[in-house]
Structures are given as C-alpha cells and as structure tokens.
Amino acid sequence: MSYKTVIVNLAVDVDPIPIVKLASALAVHFGAQLIGFAAADVPPLVVTEKGLVYEGDIMETRRRELEKHLAELRDAFEELVPASIGGRWMQHIHTPTSALITVARAADLLVTGHDRGDDAFRALDIGSLVLGAGRPVLLAANNAEHLVGKTVLVAWKDSREARRAVSDALPFLIRAKEVVVATMAGEAGPDVRSSLAEILLWLKSQGVPARTEVLFGEPGGHQLVEFAHMIGADLIVSGAYGHSRLREWAFGGITRTLMAERGINRLLSN
User: Fold this and answer.
1) DSSP states of 229-248
2) By its UniProt entry, which PANTHER family does this protein fall under (predicted)?
3) How many CA within 13 A on the CB side of residue 106?
4) Among 150-154, 184-188, 223-227, 257-261, which stretch is predicted with the lowest mean pLDDT?
5) Cβ atoms within 10 A of the Cβ of 228, count?
6) Which of 16, 59, 103, 269 could form a disulfide with 10 if both were Cys (CB 3.0 to 4.6 A apart)?
7) Tell me, what's the pLDDT at 241?
8) Does the pLDDT value for residue 217 go beyond 80?
9) What are residue 4's DSSP bridge partners?
10) What CA–CA distance (Å, rounded) separates 215 from 221?
11) Residue ranges per domain, the chain?
12) For all residues of the chain together, what is the average pLDDT?
C-alpha cells in the first residue's frame, strides 16, 4: 500500500516554500503524483462610510489581485517541485476549506500547514477539513521541510476513527523504523490490553515493527505530545473525534490539542 496522489495546500498568506518542500519529499518517497492547490475568495461585502454594501468594482479589483497572487503561488510551486515528480496545479476562487474538501476526492493524502488568522475566505478550517474530506490529513509542523517518520506514535483508542487512522497511515508505518502504539488509560484493564494486543498483531501482519505503551494519568493531548517528543517521534497518527453542533464542530480534547499543536507533524483521519 502506498499513496499514489498527494495534494499539498498552499495557504495564500503563508510562505509556500516549507510545505512544498515537505510535500515534494513525500511524493518522491512514495512515488506519488503531487498536486499543488490554492484557494481563496473575495468577501461579498465591503465596509464603506455608509455601512456594509455590495461594491462590484471593488470586488472585481480584489478578485484580479487574488488571481494574480494565486498565479504567483503556482509559479512558486512549479519552481520548487523536482522535475522527476509528476506534478500539476489546481486553484479556485472559492473558500479554501470547501474547495479543498471537494478536490480531496482526487487524492490519497492531503498535506497542509497552519494558516494565519481565521478568515474563512483565505484560511482553512482544519477541523472541518479533517472531518469532511474523507481522506487522511497531514498537518505539518511549523516551517517543517522534511518528515522522516523514523519513529511514529499512534494514539490508540478502540474506535472507528482510530482504526481508520491506522489504516490510512499504513504507508508511513510500514516505512518507519519504530512504531509505538500508545493508549491513555487510568487503569490497564483486560479490555485495554486485549485491544492493544490485537492492533499489534494486525500491524505485525502488515510488516510494521510496533510496540505498545499505556500512558497513565489524566488523558490529554499535551501528555501525548510530550510522550511523542520523549520517544523521538516526528509524526503522531490519530483519529479525529468530533461532531456537528449546529454550525460548529465540537471536538474531543485530544483532537483539539493535536489540531492546535504546531511543534510536530500529525496525521489525522476520520
């Protein structure tokens, strides 16, 4: 199993160089096609002295400016991607989250960094992307240009989301030197031990060199991140746990922490 097509998201307000280098290295590593993607939109309302009004001329000017910026990102992508990679470019004048969710059907893996700000017309909503894309999402650490994946930490919970995440991350796990499957529990009862033993057997059947750990104490994402650093992992694999609450997503504590964490690479799947 491998990733055959990788989409890398280039945020319009962030330096594209680190994320393109990281995604290019992954594409080379997995022998995958790399698709560069960027999207943003122009807010439909403009603030004037008279209040909020539609201003067609201003919107058209901003749209042209945005198209020029997207073209600059395309040029940067094409310059940075090695000639050996079968790369192509996609761009949309649309809100980036919904646009990326739509094109995710063309990929095995989505790669993105963290956008600046929370402007829905220019920045990704990571939670909505992870829960809506139907593809694993690799959230790169800040300014990371490489992902070695020598040691990978799997955040295990006997749930649909965790099982899906382990399956989706298999190309990384197979290539890792060490995989640690860790669960957080107040007490390592028979159900926990049975769950860990069975996922360990499955991973070994896939050729993955794995071992298990039980992390005691108050469960939380920060404890997971600290453990990842302690074992020298540069990738955390986790299921994403969330549900819709009216128009907002409500996430579990570990998922919220991992989405906000910027010091380590994370692969999230739902």
Assistant:
1) HHTT-SEEEEE--EEEETTE
2) STRESS RESPONSE PROTEIN NHAX, UNIVERSAL STRESS PROTEIN HP_0031
3) 14
4) 184-188
5) 24
6) 16
7) 79
8) no
9) none
10) 11
11) 5-139, 151-269
12) 89
pLDDT of res. 169: 98
Spatial neighbors of 92 by CB under 8 A, at least 6 apart, are 38, 39, 99, 103
What are the structure tokens assigned to 145, written together?
Answer: 């240009």
Structure-token pair, residue 247: 């128009």
pLDDT, tens only, 72-111: 999 999 999 998 898 999 999 999 999 999 999 999 999 9
Phi, psi at 248, each rounded to 5°: -120, 155
Question: Whole-angstrom Cα distance, residue 213 to residue 227?
Answer: 10
* pLDDT (mean) for 228-243: 90
**Is 227 in a helix, a strand, or coil?**
helix
Which residue carries 């590593």 as its tokens? Answer: 29
How far is the C-alpha of 14 from the C-alpha of 6, rounded, in Å?
Answer: 20
Cα 141 to chain centroid distance, Å, stands at: 10
pLDDT of 244? 52
In this structure, whether the domain defined by 5-139 belongs to CATH 3.40.50.620 is answered with yes
Do the beta carbons of residue 147 and residue 116 sit within 8 Å?
no
Q: Do domains 5-139 and 151-269 have the same CATH topology?
A: yes
Domain boundaries 151-269, corresponding CATH code: 3.40.50.620
